[in-house]
Every structure is written in structure tokens, then in C-alpha cells.
Amino acid sequence: MNEPQITVVGNLVSDPELRMSQSGNSWVTFRIASTPRVRDRQSNEWVDGETLWLGCRAYGQYAENIANSLTKGTRVVVQGKLSQRSYTDNQGQQRTSLELEVDEIGPSLRFATAQVTRTASRGEVGGFGGGAPQGQPAWGQPAAPSQPAAESAWAAPSQPAAESAWGAPAQNNPTGNGGSFDDAAF
Length: 186
Description:
5% of the residues lie in helices and 35% in strands. The protein contains 1 helix and 8 strands; from the N terminus they run ββββββαββ. The strands form 2 sheets. It has a 5-stranded mixed beta barrel with strand order 1-3-6-8-7. A two-stranded antiparallel sheet has the order 4-5. A hairpin with a 5-residue loop joins strand 2 and strand 3. It starts with a strand and ends in a 79-residue tail after the last strand.
């Protein structure tokens, strides 16, 4: 089936609910609400539009990461496959719900900050083989200095006053950068 891919920004209306099957597979369900702000043409004021309620689900280690990272009220950006489900409620009414199988989710950083912590790699994280390069610190961790700052390739070079910012000897010319007006910038 060709479900459309959508991206929604909204708030979690409850804590993600992590569940386990008898075979040990995990999944998480949660709901988000997204309410657009629209301009009322009659009053010329911004008002809340109609709220979109969306049930979401994810599976496996991804589900566990979501349950451990996000809580009720968190503003999130969610991308996934949209599907529609019809059912009959307890009162016998025919209902339709929209559900999103989550491909990507993260906190919105518009009104918040986040600290990212990578989980232990299970082989292929993000489709790139996962993990930090051999001999490098874990992602998100500060690198330990391997050389004294004076010997580091990234240390600020000490330039004599006679040199230009590009490391070339300064010349007496109108541009002050070792070139002339006729030289290309790069």
C-alpha cells in the first residue's frame, strides 16, 4: 500500500506507552495534537484553528528510544506514513482515525533545547554502519586533546604583523591583502 509521507509538528498529549509482545518485540504508541494558528478575517486577529489529533506508533529499539526520551507536553516534529482506520465505537457510531507509523521523531527546538545522547550501536545506525569512526570519541562527546594546544593542527597560528590574514607576506598595495585590485578574490 502506498501511504503518504507527512511531517507534523505538534505536542504529545500523553507519555509514550511502551509495550512488549510475548516474543519480546517492543512497540510504542502515543498521540500528538497539532493546532494551527489562523487569521480570523472578521476580527483581524489570530485564533486557534481546528486541532488535528494523530495516533502514532513505532517499533523495536526506536520505540524504546522514544519512550525513554519524550514526555507528555513535549513539542515534537514527527515524520511518517499516514494511514486511515475505520471502526465502530462503543455507542455504535462509525468513526475514522488517522494514524502515523513513525519514521523520524525529535523534539522541536523552536521553544526548547535538547541534549542528544547516542545509544549503543546495533550495527547499522542511520544506514551508515553506526558508531563513531575507529579511534574517535563517541558522538556528542568532547574529544580528548591528543596534542598540546601549541602543537595542535587546529591551534590558532601566531602570525607576525608583517603577514596578511592568509599567511602571505604583506605587500604595499591598496588592498592590504597581498594582492592587487586585479587579483580574483579566490
